[in-house]
């Protein structure tokens, strides 16, 4: 959908074009009012793109194999039973 008005964008080229060519950031309209320079916009766009790309390589809690959670749960239950048996 095309809407009236124009937007300012920052385009960051990808260093590794295997998957992506560019990242496009749409600049908020009040960024100029806050005294942000063009150089700061580009640096922030690069930082965000770098962090996003690095974050996709990290394992999150949700990506851990469910077997690991099952074994951890079993170990905790076994520990609770052992403590209860000693008391």
Structural features:
single chain; 87 residues; mainly alpha; two-stranded antiparallel sheet; 2 helices
Give an account of the 3D structure.
47% of the residues lie in helices and 11% in strands. The chain has 87 residues and is mainly alpha-helical. The chain has a two-stranded antiparallel sheet. β1 (9-13) and β2 (22-26) form a beta hairpin. The mean pLDDT is 81.
Which structural category fits the helices and strands? mainly alpha
Please state how the strands of the largest beta sheet are arranged side by side. 1-2
Task: Give the strand tally.
Answer: 2
Mean pLDDT: 81
- Biggest sheet character: 2 strands, antiparallel
> How many alpha or pi helices?
2
Low-confidence stretches: none
